[in-house]
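Moderator note: this is an archived Q&A kept for reference. The question asked for a predicted structure of one protein chain; the sequence and the answer are reproduced below.
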Amino acid sequence: MDKVAIKVDHISKAFKLPHERQSSIKGALINIFKGGVRSYETQHVLQNVSFDIKKGEFFGIVGRNGSGKSTMLKMLAGIYIPTEGSITVNGKLTPFIELGVGFNPELTGRENVYLNGALLGFSRKEMNALYDDIVAFAELERFMDQKLKNYSSGMQVRLAFSIAIKVQTDILLLDEVLAVGDQNFQEKCFDYFENIKRSDTTVILISHDASVIERFCSRVAIIDRGKLVNIGPAKEMVLQYGAIMAEEQYEQGFAQDKGKRQGNGALTLKNIRVTDASGKTCHSLQASERFAIMADYVLNTKLSDEVIVGVDIIDHDGDSILGPNTAESLKSGLQLQKRGTIAASFDMNPLSPGMYSITVGVFNKRATYAYDLIEGAVRFKIIGERRHGKIYIEPRWTIS
């Protein structure tokens, strides 16, 4: 335990959601005297979660909205008490969980610095020593005597974050709050993260920005539907989390939301899918991973001529990224049997991370009409480091 900053031991958290709401004390008393029993629904937010965070570790927590990660952070901060299990914290902890917590909009920025410091357990003398550094980092020297209600949300987050990082603490909890700051302030915070990684301070970070998690965290925990899915090196966990998000998008109907369908009905395409390097149907791929687009077909009438098969990979902005067809690739048409499977295999994957949709079509030999054409037949996600450009091909660099 000497090397452990936080120990989470089989914790669960549940909330009681009343089916009936009383809007007044009178209504509640009447309900009691009538012998009424209020019914509740139990919402299990976290279930049997355990992990250790080492001292000096930059630890990340990721998960979908509603997965329980923010509830976890609030329990680490002592705001919520676990329904079951225990949390042990070794050291002084500073939470930075929600914008505006601990601030009074009617007080000035200067007064709020001391108020926030007092809530964190620091004396006025200690805050006097830290005040100039806090204001300088927030870059709010001209505004400290104005009331906080006149601050923009960006100014408030700068002040709150500056207080959180400048006070001397052993453990720092950070929720998804940097999204409120502007680009320059975010870069300033990232520079601070680089410095803090070289110190003994323990940081627990929640963020939906996979690049931030991968850049700063040494280990990451994935929480999904209230359970700990996995915990491990940041890069591996970011890829696994991306696959979970792609699966969610599929479940919500993005991949099944078929677009326009047209054709003369001589042929029917069905079961259009993306397969990974192992041949398994998937909804997400790692960047550079080879893949295939496959579609089953059935001839409804006998075709008298060869056909052309084409696929089109379209990005989130609606731009066509790749659009090969058999006439260009094979320099000839295809003769189809009564039924079968068409596969377009890509041994090289140049697609940058992001969401893509696929259009598949079978045309007559001259491509003047379609037997069957389905736009947006299926969607998939490329997971990996952000790249410039919509496709990425690694060049061979030389300098002369």
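Archived answer notes: The chain has nine helices and 19 strands.
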